[in-house]
Amino acid sequence: xxxxxxxxxxxxxxxSRSHNEEFARVVAAVFMSRLDPxxxxxxxxxxxxxxxxxxxxxxxxxxxxxxxYIEASVRGKELTVSVxxxxxxxxxxxxxxxxxxxxxxxxxxxGMGFAFMEALMDQVQVRSQPGRGTVVTMKKLIGG
Amino acid sequence: xxxxxxxxxxxxxxxxxxxPRELDHHNSRNLRYETDLLLAExxxxxxxxxxxxxxxxxxxxVGILLNRYKQMQRSGGSMAICGAKAPxxxxxxxxxxANLVPQYDTKEAAMxxxxxxxxxxxxx
Lengths: 144, 124
What we know:
The structure holds 2 protein chains of 2 kinds.
Chain A: E1 7-15, H1 20-32, H2 39-60, E2 67-75, E3 78-85, H3 93-96, H4 113-120, E4 123-129, E5 133-141
Antiparallel strand pairs in A: 1-2, 2-3, 3-5, 4-5
Helix pairs in contact in A: 1-2, 2-4
Chain B: E1 7-11, E2 14-18, E3 22-23, H1 31-41, E4 46-50, E5 56-57, H2 59-74, E6 78-82, H3 86-94, E7 103-104, H4 107-123
Parallel strand pairs in B: 2-4, 3-5, 4-6, 6-7
Antiparallel strand pairs in B: 1-2
């Protein structure tokens, strides 16, 4: 078991491919298992990670090649996960985070990605620079 | 990996789409194309999304459902969800789908309800 003062970390580097979305969320779920989470907490984190990685694949790299970095840490009962891409970035982060807002023209995207992350995690922070990339950092207290 | 994640079953005017275990962006890539083909070739007045084997969903799933819902609304048809377990139901609620699309425990109930509606429409 983790002592409350210790921080444990992991870092994963994956290619920006849609089939890696599942891989990323499963790794996050396994990493957080050291906090003895409930099934609901695991589901929440898996969905939130899936949203962030999907955003990087679809929007950050626009379906093209690129690398996505997933870092996670636990300190006490708090889980922090960050998903970073070096893609096109987001022009207007506040607008991108509005529920139902999407730049997708096919009608298949709900525009609910950030809304899901915010509903399922305690804290979501997005830092982005157009042309440089995006970092999404999410925190959740497990068993809190 | 090459296995088609969706199973389609047509009974009368009802199209049942059995969703994969993991309903995410990757697994839902072909759904739009495939359902558009099926809707073009068959007279479908109700789509039932069968979640009975689905254990994971993210907002990609919500996008699919909302898009199909709008499509059925435009054509005067209806849509239903069956077999969704508690974690999926929660996400359907967060995504606003639960308010729009009726949910049933079994596929049979979801299909039968569509038949009833059709009968009622015909009587009108």
